[in-house]
Sequence to fold (279 residues):
Amino acid sequence: MNSEVILKTFHQMLTVQRYAPNTIRVYQDYARLFLNAMQKYKQLNEIPVVAIEAFINEKVEKDRISSSYQKGLVGAIKKIYELLLKEKIQLDYLYPKRSFSHLPKFFSKEEVKLLLESTDNIKHKAIFMTIYSCGLRLNELLSLTIIDIRSSDKIIRINQSKGNKDRIVPLPDKLLDTLRDYYLVYKPKNYLFEGEKGNRYSERSVQLVLKKALKKAKIRTEGSVHTLRHSYATHLIQSGIDVRIVQELLGHENIKTTMIYTHITDIDKKRTPSPLDFL
Fold:
């Protein structure tokens, strides 16, 4: 089975269906993982359902993939069969049925301030500041181009983010000043944050840079680049910004997704006395 041919065709069909570039990238990663595990079969249509079941089961039990990763993997396999074989394969029973409710981790305002103050590299500082001050997803940050920064209008344009939607976020003065300092040093040509060869800066590089920066700043709160986005939303709601405005700024399609931050910042809960106080 020629995995590369299948992946190329899969990519083309997802592109024709106007999936967002990042969605295509994620689907490709899932598809490559699946196809590599099925190399003993000569054709895609020869793979038995029991082999797919065994593959997912191994990922859950041996590799201990997360619930969201499991959903993505099963969804990608279904999409491969749908687009390449025109077959609606029934794999819904392989989706995780048990729901989990996790509150998003976030950095305190003091930790964000410490992170920025202890980051000497102007490029790294600009990256952290852009994510935090605009609430961007990592892919949205790395997809930003020079022309997306509208300094005269004090806005940043986010193009074709999750769900193929464009949106606009405010450009704070502090961030604009930092981006100008960064630009004078690095002089990017196309992408706002570029790699060594002028291509798009890698996601892994940003994650590693943040990990080192958190260690240097002696911040003990565990977090990733996405934690900065969670911090943005949490701090806005803590400041009294309406949740529907935060929803729009984050690019959430459903208000329920944004409402999770109100569990963290619910002032009434914080004021509720403990029974211990009555003893």
Observations:
- The chain has two domains: 3-94, 109-268.
